[in-house]
Amino acid sequence: MTALPDIAEITGPTPGQQLRKRMFGHQGFMIGAIFLALLVLVAILAPVLAPHDPYAQSLGDRMVRPVFMGGTWEHPLGTDHLGRDYLSRLIYGAQISLLIGAIAALISGLIGTTLGIAAGYFGGRVDAVVTFLINVRLAMPVVLVALAVVAILGGSLNVVIGVLGLLLWDRFAVVMRASTLQIRNREFVAAARAIGCSTPRILLSEILPNILNNLIVVVTLEMAHAILLEAALSFLGLGVQPPTPSWGLMVSEGKNMMLFEPWLVLIPGAVLFLLVLAINLMGDGLRDVTAPENRN
Amino acid sequence: MLRFILKRLGLALLVALTVSFISFSLLFLAGDPAIAIAGESANAKDIQAIRELYGFDRPMLVQYADWLWNALRFDFGQSYYFKLPVADLIAERLSVTMTLGVCGILFALLTAVPLGVIAAIRPNSLIDRIALFLSVAGQAMPSFWFGLILIVVFAIQLGWLPASGASSWQHFIMPTVVLGYYAMPAIMRLTRAGMLEVLSADYIRTARAKGAPEGRVLFKHALRNAIIPVVSLAAVQMGFMLGGSIVVESIFALHGAGYLAWESIGRNDLPTVQALILVFALFYIVFTFLADVLNAWLDPRMRSA
C-alpha cells in the first residue's frame, strides 16, 4: 500500500504562506517593518531606556553638545535650551508621535471605511452623498483648518488627535469605495444575498475581509500622514504644547539656536523623517505584496 | 461637453457653499466673538453693545446668510486685529502666495516629468533608482525640517541665499524648492507609471515598426498621452500647495496669505481666518474644476463620469 501524499504536496503553499513569503522577500517592507517595530519597542520601554527624566531641567547644563560633537556620555545626544536630556526627550517623543499617528489613523479609518463601503455597496444616492462629502473634505485646507480648530479648542493631545482623525478620512473613503465597487457583484456576495444574509452581515463578513488588504495599506500611509501633520502643527506652535516632548516642538524650540547649534534641529527632524520613511516603506511594500497588479 | 461642464460647475458651487458654511461655523465653535472683540476689561454692557453692533445676537443661519451675501461681493468684514477690511488684507498678501505656488508647481513639474520619463524609458537603471529614492524621501520629508536644513546650509553656512523675506527673486528660491519638492513625488510616480503603460501600447509598437525615430516615438507619441493625467494632477496639487504654503511661508517669513493665516490664528482674528479658509478652498475647487474640464476636453471618455 502506498502512502497517500501530504495535502501540502497536492495543493502547494496556501495563499497565506505565499503572502508571508513575499513579505519576507520584500526588501522595502522588511526594512520599514523592522525599523517601525524597533521604534514601537523604544516607545513602550521609554521609562526603562531613557537615561534621564525628559522634563527635568538643569539650567547649569544647557545646550550641552552630543557626544559625537565633543559632549560626554552623561548626555549622549546633548541637552536642550533648558538643560533637558535630548535623548530622553526623543525617546518619549516617539510615544507621542506613534500614539497620535495610530489613534488618528484609527478614527479616520473608521469614518472613511464606513463611508467608503456604504458608497461602494449601495451606490446611487448614498454614493452621490459620500462622493460629495469627499469633495468637500478635499477642498478644506487641512493645515489651516487644523491650526484654527486647535487654536480655538486649545492644544491638548486629545484635541490634536481628534482634529487629525476627523480630517484625514478622505483617502480611506476613496480607496474603500473603489475596492467595494470591485467586489460587490462577485458570486460570493450574490450567494450570501441569496441565502438571506442580512446587509450588515454581508458588509462585515463578506465585503470587509476581502478589502482588508487595501485598508491596511491606507492605515499605514495615513498614520505617516498624521504623524507628519502633528509635527507640523506642533512646529507652528498650535499642536501639542510644551513641555511635552513632541518632535515637531523640539525642532521649533531648536530653531532659535539654529545659527550656532544646528544639531538641535537636525536630530529630532531626522528621527521624524526616518519614522515616516519606515512607515511609508512598509505601506508601499504591503501594497506590492498584497496587490502586485496595482503596483506602479 | 457643455452638459459635463455645467454639471461639474454645479457640483463645484455646492462644494464651495458647504465649505463656506463650515468655515463660518468655526466662529461659533470659538465661543462668544463679542468678548474677543471687546477685550478682557470690557463690562457686560459694552459686550452687549458690540453684540448688537456686529449682529451677533441674531440666529446663526441669518448671520451666515448675511456673511455669505457679503462674501459674494468680496466683503469679508473687518479684521479684529488690523481694523481693516479683510478682503484688502488678503488681496495684498495673495500675490506672494500665488508667486510661490506657481514657482513651486513649475519646479515640481520641471524635475518630476523628465525624471519620470527617463525612469520609465530605462526601468531599474541608476536614474530610475535615484528618482525612486527622491520620491520616497520626498514623501517622508517634513517640509518645515527640509526648509530649516536649507537655511542652515545655503543661508548660514554658505551664505548664498537670504534666509527670510520676499524682497528679491533670490528670496523665493528655497521656498520654491521646499514647496515644489512636496508636490514632486506624486507627479513623478504618475509620469513614470503613465509612460510605462503607454510605451507598451500597440500604437507605440506600430510607430517603431514603421521606422519612426525613437525621439519622435517617445515625445510625440508616448509623452503626449502619458502627460494628460499628469496635467490634471498638477492642477490638483497646485490647489493643495497653496493651502500647504502656510508652513513654508512661516519658515521663510514670506508675508503671503499663508503667513497672514498663521498670524491671524495666533491673534484670534476670526473673520480673517474664515475668509482665508474659504479663499484657499476656492483655489482648490477652481483648480480641480479646471483639471476636470481639461481632462474631458482631452479625453472624451471622461465626459460621462
UniProtKB/TrEMBL annotation, chain A:
Broad class of where this protein is predominantly found: membrane
- List cellular component terms (GO): plasma membrane
Q: Which residues form the ABC transmembrane type-1 domain?
A: 94-283
**Superkingdom of the source?**
Bacteria
Q: How does it sit in the membrane?
A: Multi-pass membrane protein
The entry's localization annotation reads:
Cell membrane
Check the record and name the Gene3D superfamilies matching this protein: MetI-like (1.10.3720.10)
The keyword Electron transport is assigned to this record = no
Transmembrane helix as a keyword?
yes
Can you supply a Gene Ontology BP term from the record?
transmembrane transport
Q: Which UniProt keywords apply?
A: Cell membrane, Membrane, Transmembrane, Transmembrane helix, Transport
UniProt xrefs under InterPro entries: BP-dependent_transpt_permease (IPR050366), MetI-like (IPR000515), MetI-like_sf (IPR035906), OppC_N (IPR025966)
Q: Where are the transmembrane segments?
A: 29-50, 96-122, 142-169, 260-279
Family, per the entry?
Answer: Belongs to the binding-protein-dependent transport system permease family.
Protein's name in the database? ABC transporter permease
Q: What is the lineage of its organism?
A: Bacteria, Pseudomonadati, Pseudomonadota, Alphaproteobacteria, Rhodobacterales
From TrEMBL, chain B:
Per the record's keyword annotation, is Transport included, yes or no?
A: yes
Q: The organism sits in which domain of life?
A: Bacteria
Signal peptide interval: none
Q: What InterPro entries has UniProt attached to this entry?
A: BPD_transp_1_N, MetI-like, MetI-like_sf
Q: Which UniProt keywords apply?
A: Cell membrane, Membrane, Transmembrane, Transmembrane helix, Transport
- Report the membrane topology from the UniProt record: Multi-pass membrane protein
The reply on keyword Transport is: yes
One GO biological process from the UniProt record? transmembrane transport
Primary place of residence?
Answer: membrane
The residue ranges crossing the membrane are 94-118, 130-156, 168-187, 226-255, 275-298
The text of the family note is: Belongs to the binding-protein-dependent transport system permease family.
Report what the protein is called: ABC transporter permease
Which species expresses this protein natively? Paracoccus methylarcula
